[in-house]
User: Fold these one by one.
Assistant:
Number 1:
Amino acid sequence: MAVPKKKTARSYSKTRYTHYEMETQKRILDETNVVKCTECGAPKRSHTACSECGKYRGRQVLQEKKAPETTRVQA
Ligand SMILES: [Zn+2]
């Protein structure tokens, strides 16, 4: 059985694995669909209600942050 001659230093291992970390982060960013809200233009995740204006496909589904109670639409 092959045995490594020297212990692999932690800094060396970590340096090597930075490439995997970058790839993972890039993949997460690519897979997370962040789109612009059609109502207010704020970045939001696709297929979810906008956290800024609370609208989804032109319909008010969430209560706005600063809006009064009367603007809430019953689903
Ligand atoms: Zn919005």
Number 2:
Amino acid sequence: MSNVFNFSAGPSSLPPAVMEVAREEFRDYRGLGVSVMEISHRSSEFMEIAERAEADLRELLNLSDDYYVLFLHGGASLQFSMVPLNLARISDTVDYVDTGYWSTKAISEAKRLTRVNVVATSEDQNYDRVVGFPDWRLSDSARYVHLTSNETIGGVQFREFPDTGHAPLVVDMSSDFLSRPIDTCRFGLIYAGAQKNVGPAGLCIVLIRKDLCGNERGHTPSLLSYGVHARHKSMFNTPPTYNWYLAGLVLAWLKSEGGLVAMETRNRRKAEKLYAAIDKSDLYHSPVQRPYRSMMNVPFTLLETELESRFLAIAERRGLSNLKGHRSVGGMRASLYNAIDEKAVDALIEHMESFEKALR
Ligand SMILES: Cc1ncc(COP(=O)(O)O)c(C=O)c1O
């Protein structure tokens, strides 16, 4: 067992119970004598793994049969291109909400493929909030509205989702997928890179409403077509089988832990504790306005930036790892995904308090 509390933003901690099962099954998957990564994706053993993972995901999300579930390569970033390629023509307009680093990435990729209208941006406020829905300047005939539910770097999160009317809502949920219950029927498409709450990097889960599938542009490469992936049950080519297997173990673990309601309760408790510790101190500061603070990624700065390297060095010695903020914003960042135990947050708060006390 590791004594390290890993606050990495992604790839990030996986539940210890999942790692144990993976370790036990690593060389010999349930008596087969070989590893999951050594068998065909078309074998009955892998088909069962794949189907169970999808069934568990559907159950966790209460997802209706109106949606396909796709297990794809290419991370969440490939979706920045697949979404416009499949849902819009070059002359169409699509609406994007700019909430920071990841939505900016999605916008710049979409701009290569279609006409993008940025309906709201908090850039002028240094991305310390989400612009309220009433202030969005939506297009009359957008093919879809895209937003990033949780900005992994900036630590800004949507608490609730707007009704975008005729335009399907498309959401990059990479860093808060499965962290709380969502009303899936309100979305046209959800995508999530696995490496936060679902499994290892490289795998991306896509939920797409069936009527949005199969409308890709004529020249779209097969591997970038949702329709092709849906028709082939995500096995048009060899899927990332081991990642899919690990994601399946995480999904089974989530069910055994009480599902998404239990996750939300736990995640809220962890985040509230940490924000309370930041707010009551004279040393630490949260750059995000309270109503938009993320339950998953908590960035914070120290009043004197020269203290940051000392804070991090002592944290490392205490087994608190990967707290350094993203290179683009600096400061600290604690990621509190599902697999992060409350004990890790308690240990971090203890460190923050003793570090501050020692300065007095
Ligand atoms: C919100 C969000 N979207 C997209 C990505 C890109 O994911 P990937 O590196 O899997 O392409 C990330 C990565 O951290 C992310 O946090």
